[in-house]
Amino acid sequence: MLVTDCEMTGLEPHLHSILSVGVIDLEHPERQLYEECRMWDGAKVEDEALAVCGFTREQIADPTKQTEGELVHKFIAFANGMQDTTLAGQNVFVDFFFLQAAAKRAGHTAWPFAHRIIDLHSLCWEHKIKGGEAPPLDAEKHHSALNLEAVCNYVGIPKETKPHNALTGAKVSAEAISRLLYDKKLLPEFEQYQIPWLS
Predict the structure, then answer these.
(1) What is the mean pLDDT of the chain?
(2) Three-state SS at 57
(3) φ/ψ (deg, to 5) at 117
(4) Confidence band of 110 (pLDDT split at 50, 70, 90)
(5) How does pLDDT run across 58-108, given as a tens digit for each residue?
(6) Collapsing DSSP states into helix, strand and coil, what is residue 15?
(7) CA separation (Å) from 43 to 39, 87, 114, 160?
(8) Domains, the chain, ranges and CATH?
């Protein structure tokens, strides 16, 4: 399983660009990938998105950084030879569609990943229900309030640091997935934090 997180210039795959990707091989968590790229020429940039990931406009246009296409080539190469290349993570469908759009812009003719994903939000929702706990709802917007911070709190690990980094996002998601699916800690940086429902 490829636990994946991307940082982007916005939320629309055909308007915005990937800026970085972080990946953890869930079966072999010592295998990790972190890559940054410059935005593709003409990509739209949202100030709110840059505030989340901490990149400056100068950094995202740096001509010495690799292209988005080169980044997606490295992502695909990382997955080569893995037994399970299902993408997983918090709202990972967004990352999936960004990576797929980047691959198309780069001229890939054989996108190797299926549309089936493992969504951390859904795993946590089910875990809470099975444990007899009602998942939180956003009172104003009337939808799930299980964001990544709430998931981290539920599984007993610190929330992701700000500004967000794609690799730390992937690590937090991988640790949460391991705890929810297998009742097991995964990464050394989270070893000190107990799994709440096993304590």
Answers:
(1) 96
(2) helix
(3) -130, 165
(4) confident
(5) 999 999 999 999 999 999 999 999 999 999 999 999 999 999 999 999 987
(6) coil
(7) 7, 25, 26, 27
(8) 2-198 (3.30.420.10)
Bridge partners, 35 (sequence order)? 21
- What pTM was computed for the model? 0.96
Q: What is the DSSP letter of 40?
A: P
User: Is the predicted pLDDT of residue 145 greater than 80, yes or no?
Assistant: yes
Distance CA 134, CA 73 (A): 41
What are the b/e assignments for 23-49, b being 16+ CB within 10 Å?
A: bbbbeebeebbbbbbbbbeebebeeeb
Structure tokens at 71: 């980044």
Computed over its alpha carbons, how large is the radius of gyration of the chain? 17
Find the mean pLDDT for residues 128-132: 96
- Number of Cβ within a 10 Å radius of residue 101: 20
User: Once rounded to an integer, what is the mean pLDDT over residues 128-157?
Assistant: 95
Q: Three-state secondary structure along 148-189?
A: HHHHHHHHCCCCCCCCCCHHHHHHHHHHHHHHHHHCCCCCHH
Q: Report residue 9 as tokens.
A: 């210039």
The answer to whether 92 and 4 are in contact (CB under 8 A) is yes
